[in-house]
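Morning, I've got a small favour to ask if you have a moment. I've dropped the whole record in just underneath, so have a look.
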Amino acid sequence: MSFFSNLFKSSKEPVKIIPTHISDQIIYSEESIKYSIVYRNFKTPMRSYGYKIMKGKASIGYSNSLFVAATKHNMLINVPVNHEKFSYLKFSIENEKLLIIYDASSFHDDWKGTVELRFTLENMNYFVRFLK
């Protein structure tokens, strides 16, 4: 951490999330990138949102076996790339951001609604190769 981060107790330094979640060779990762998550008609046993948007910093990465997106405190996506559920993630590029959309019930039996994740990646072209 920098002197000012220590002095004012603010952590602007990126937290290395991806290496702790991916055990094999990392093909691509970016740490401390801007993201937003949109919940539409989202329901769980504990929460319900007609529409909710949250923004922050996240990390994203993939290897030959795993695709991961996480914040410092929450796992956003953690799916093996050769698992059936990986095909439930719909990837696209929208306004120069990576867009990932999925139906929440695909990953949790007691969840309903749509989840949209948007990531501002530094190296979009390299990541797009992974999508093909």
